[in-house]
Amino acid sequence: MAEMNATSGEHQPDRSLERMGALAGAMAHEIKNPLSTMNISLQLLMEDLEARPQVASSQVLPRIRLVCDEIRHLERILGSFLELARAPVLDLRERDPNVLVHELLNFLGPECTQETVDVRIHCDSSIGLVQFDPDLLKQALLNLLRNALQAMDGGGTLTVITTNCGANWEVQVIDTGKGIPPNVLERVFNPFFTTRRGGTGIGLAVTRSIVERHGGNIHLQSAVGQGTRFKLSFPRTVLRP
Ligand SMILES: Nc1ncnc2c1ncn2[C@@H]1O[C@H](COP(=O)(O)OP(=O)(O)O)[C@@H](O)[C@H]1O
Ligand SMILES: [Mg+2]
Predict the structure, then answer these.
(1) Which residue, of 86, 101, 135, is where some domain finishes?
(2) 3-state SS, residue 130
(3) Is the torsion defined by CA of 88, 91, 172, 8 positive or negative?
(4) Are residues 126 and 220 in the same domain?
(5) Are residues 73 and 109 in the same domain?
(6) Which ligand is the nearest neighbour of the Cα of 195?
(7) Residue 62, domain member (yes or no)
(8) Domain region containing 26
(9) Could you report the per-residue pLDDT of 11-40, keeping only the tens digit for each?
(10) Residue 188 has what DSSP assignment?
(11) Mutational pocket test of ligand 1: of 73, 153, 194, 209, the residue with most ligand atoms within 8 Å of the beta carbon
(12) Confidence class of residue 241 from pLDDT cuts 50, 70 and 90?
């Protein structure tokens, strides 16, 4: 079983994402415009070519379509990066995190059924009201839940556990999926690191950034072929930076 703590340290939050975010904001316009010009030009080119019978039966159109797919992939990566860059101010509320967990799993219910994933929820009702930004925590957990479902494409069990730890509270997302090899474990939080075809590698970077902004930390354990456990730990009261 390989494990790691993903948080960069209580007193020195990782600001590198914020710095990258500022740069990305400036670069986004520069990259976005030529990409959409390329996309439109290729669409027009395809329309022209489709009208020619000798082209329609050749490899020309599939090849152009491939380039269009790649452009769309680049646009998605750009969109996710901007999401990361935006880093809105924390909108802290006093809420019961168990309610959020139930809402999220209800929302993912149909996807779980379709993937033949069994869902187990163990909520510690003694947590009560704690401080968090509901939209951001939802995003952070959704990223973990989606990864868990993607790791169990042959079905499995998804377990979500919340725990009252006194001054802190915890939420764990556990899957019985394919697991993460030890040499990959330390890279999964890096922006753009992905092993999934069509993945953007932004999900865990966003989750880590959200957890750190709440003054929390992430612990990750994984065993290849057995599954993965993410444990997020949060203070009941969030100190504003
Ligand atoms: N629950 C999990 N089980 C197995 N691998 C995982 C899990 N969560 C994350 N990973 C690994 O971490 C990588 C990065 O995840 P993420 O940042 O969400 O990006 P993406 O989902 O776009 O690949 C994934 O490509 C995968 O290799
Ligand atoms: Mg993901």
Answers:
(1) 86
(2) strand
(3) positive
(4) yes
(5) no
(6) 1
(7) yes
(8) 16-86
(9) 455 667 667 667 777 777 688 889 989 999
(10) T
(11) 194
(12) low
Among residues 33, 64, 86, which one ends one of the domains? 86
Looking at the structure, tell me whether residues 102 and 115 fall in a common domain.
yes
- Asked if residues 145 and 158 have their Cβ atoms less than 8 Å apart, the reply is yes
pLDDT category at 230 given cuts 50, 70, 90 is: very high
CA of 202, closest atom in ligand 1: 17
| Per-residue pLDDT tens over the stretch 43-91 | 999 998 888 888 877 888 899 999 998 998 888 878 777 766 666 778 8
Tokens of 97: 């995190």
The answer to whether the CB of 182 is under 6 A from ligand 1 is no
User: Checking DSSP bridges between strand 93-95 and strand 227-235, what pairing results, if any?
Assistant: unpaired
Residue type, 71: I
Are 218 and 231 in contact, with CB atoms under 8 Å apart? yes
As a whole number of angstroms, the distance between CA 186 and CA 95 comes to 32
